[in-house]
Amino acid sequence: MQMHKLFYKKKFDQHFLKDQNIAKKIVNYLSFKNYNTVVEVGPGLGILTQYLLANPSNHVFLIEIDKELISFLKRKFFIPKNQILHKNFLKWNPEEIKLKNFAIIGNFPYKISSQILFHILKYYQYIPECVGMFQKEVAKRITSYKGKKTYGILSVLVQTFYEVKYLFTVTEKVFFPIPNVQSAVISLKRKNEIIYCNQNMLFQCVKIAFNQRRKKLKNSLKFFNHIPNFHKIPFLNKRAEELSVKEFLKLTKEIEIRK
Question: What kind of fold does domain 199-258 have according to CATH?
Answer without folding.
Answer: Helicase, Ruva Protein; domain 3 (1.10.8)
